[in-house]
Known about the structure:
By secondary structure, the protein is mostly helical. It has helices at residues 26-40, 46-60, 66-78, 82-94, 117-128, 134-152, 160-188, 193-196, 198-209, 213-228, 234-247, 281-287, 303-307; strands spanning 3-8, 257-262, 268-272.
Amino acid sequence: xxxxxxxxxxxxxxxxxxxxxxxxxxxxxxxxxxxxxxxxxxxxxxxxxxxxxxxxxxxxxxxxxxxxxxxxxxxxxxxxxxxxxxxxxxxxxxxxxxxxxxxxxxxxxxxxxxxxxxxxxxxxxxxxxxxxxxxxxxxxxxxxxxxxxxxxxxxxxxxxxxxxxxxxxxxxxxxxxxxxxxxxxxxxxxxxxxxxxxxxxxxxxxxxxxxxxxxxxxxxxxxxxxxxxxxxxxxxxxxxxxxxxxxxxxxxxxxxxxxxxxxxxxxxxxxxxxxxxxxxxxxxxxxxxxxxxxxxxxxxxxxxxxxx
Length: 308
């Protein structure tokens, strides 16, 4: 009998990017190709990366991901591209996902030497006043650290007994983190970008992904409202929706969830959880700002076949 483990491909996930049989719009495919090249080609010069970011910006008319946007600003500073620096700095500050500590990073120190810094700093203070949940940010970060630390051991070669022992510890930590997240949400409501910033909202999302099915379903409904208000990440919402559907035994929509099947020789094979209307998969992914996914040759999980 094969052992089944449900896997959520979250922060450490690898998205399969390709021009596969389920194509998206050419512009979005090109945007994702450029982002993948920047993330994985270590030989690119800063000037080449800057040109690629400019191309991404023109395709999307505004870089969609906060991590892309802040990375773009750092490259603009390094290349001394003054006009782009100014444009991006003000765009980031006005964006709800802005983190008040961004301009304290050494890579962005040059921004503080510009003639527009007083105006930018004033605007930064106005936006920063909205983020008054410093204690909540720290609590969310501490939850994230404990969540990731207990899962690192799973990357090692383990016996079934060792794996079972680690999973027991993980379940205990997940239970503690969930209790803390519920307490925090009782205090401040949904941990949106505007309240806690992009990075800490991401921590909350990760903890919610590892929560019980009932809480996760409730979190999905609140996150839908936040995304509609441009106050949460639509790509992260896609992962949550798929996990919620998988928990309820239903086909997923965005292709983010896999099943890890441990065979008799203690090796794991990943299988894609069934997807509703596969022909429209990448159209739905694009709507949620997810990279195109080539499903050619991917094994689809079949619960009936696993239990025979």
